[in-house]
Amino acid sequence: MPTVAVLDFATEGLSRTEMRTTVSLITSALFRMGRFVVIDTTERESLLKEIEFSAAECADDSCALKIGKLLTAEAVVVGTVAKLGSRLVLTCRMLETATGKTLGAADGAYSSMDALVDDVQRIAGALAAQRAVASGGIPAANPAPASAASSNTAKPQSTVGSSAAATPLPTADASYAAAIVAKLPADLWQRYRTMNAAETRSADYRDTDETLALKLAQLGYINTSRARNGASPVELDILASRVANRQAMEAAQNGFRGHWNLRGEKPYHRYAFAGGTDHVAENAAGSWTTGEFTRSYEQVSSFMVESHDRFMAERAPNDGHKKNCIAREHTHVGLGFYLAKSAFAYYEEFVDRYLEFIDPPFQAAVGKPVEVAVRPLKEGLFTYAVITYYEPFPKAMTVAQVNAQGAYPDYTSVQEHTIWPWDLKTDGEGATRIPLTFSRAGLYYVQIYLDTKKPSGGGADTRGKIQGSGLVVRVE
Fold first, then answer.
1. What span, in angstroms and rounded, lies between the C-alpha atoms of 43 and 46?
2. Which residue of 121, 207, 213, 255 has the fewest C-beta atoms within 10 A of its own C-beta?
3. Type and span of the H or E element at 258
C-alpha cells in the first residue's frame, strides 16, 4: 500500500488546535479506508526532528514535497482551513511526492466545526478516489498477455478479456483524454461531468475527468454495437460505473476474475449495497501478463474496445455476453476498469431503469412489515408481479474460490414472496405499494416485473416481462 503523510494545513481565523484536530481526523479517515499506510502527526514530527527539519517553515508545495521525500512517503496531503465570515472553508489536495502531480482534491464550506468533522470521511474519500482511479484505470500492451476469463448471467460463458498495470499516469497522456473531450458534444460532456460531481454514493471510486472521457468514448462504441443489432442506445450510469471501478480494482489487485468478490458478493449485491435499486446484469473481462504493462489512456481504450469486441464475437449457444450487450430492455450501463502491475480488469454493468422507488427499505427486521413503493418512470408501463428470493448473508471467499465460479445466478432457489397482478394495487398517484414481511435473517432480492399492458384476468407469467428492480433488503 502507498505511504501517505497529512501535513499541517495553513489556517486563517482558526486556532492551531482546531487545525491540528482537522488534520488528525483526516489522517484517521484515510487510515480507516485500508488503502494507505498513513504516517500520523506524532510519528511525522518525530522523524523530522531526528533530521532537524522544521515543517513550520514550509509555505508552498515544493517544500511539502520535500517533506514527503524526507519521510519516504509516496504522497502528501496539503491544505488550508480558514474562517470566512460565519463559515469554515476547507480545501486540500493529495500530491504525488515524486512528481508533484495532484492525485486527488477535496473542499467544503461549513456552518460550524461540528459540520466539518461530520464531513471528514467524505473528504478522505474524495482525496483517495481520484488517486485510485487514476492509478487504476490505465492500461497498455506489453509482454505476452495471457488469455482472460469471464462469464455472465445465465449459462457458463467462454473466455474473453484484456489487461494492464497500475501506477500514476504520465502527465502527457492526458492529451489523449482531452482529444476525446474535444470530439464530444459540449452539452453531453458537461452533463456527465455534473452528474459525476453530484453523485455522492461510492465517492471513493469516482472517475476523474480523464477516465470519464474514456468511458464516454467506450459508451459510444457499445451503442454502435447495440444499433447494429436493433437495440436503443444506453446512457452511462455514474453509480454503476463506480461499483464497476471498485470490482475492477479489487479483481486486478487481488488476482481474481469473474463476478464474485472476496466478500462473496455477486453483481446485484454490490450495486444494491451501493444504493442502487435497478436490475443489473454484468459482463466481466480480464487479462494478465508475465511482465508488466505500460500505462497510457490510449491503451486503456484499446483494451476496453478489444474486450467488448470479444463479447460481441460470441456465437450461440455460448453467447451470454453478447446477449447482455444488446438486450433491448437495458437503459444504462456502468463501466469500470483498473490497471495493476500485470493485470487489467474490465466490467460492464448493464442497468434496467424503469421504476422510481419511494423511500426503498434497504434494511428490515425479521417479522416486521415494510413497504416497497414504486412508480413506473414511463407512461404505458404497469407493475405486473413481485417475486422475492431469500439467500444467506454472503460469506468471505478465497481467490481460488472466486476463480472457480462461472456464471452467476440472477435469483436463488428459495422464494419468499410471489405476488401476481391481481394482488397488486396502484394508488391515484400511480404508485404500487407492496407490503412485505420477512421470515428470517438474510438477504432478500426483490424482483419487480412490469408489462406494457394493464393486467387483466386469467393466468400470469413473468416470461417476456420487464425486470425493473434489483432492490436487496438486508434483514436482521
1. 5
2. 255
3. none
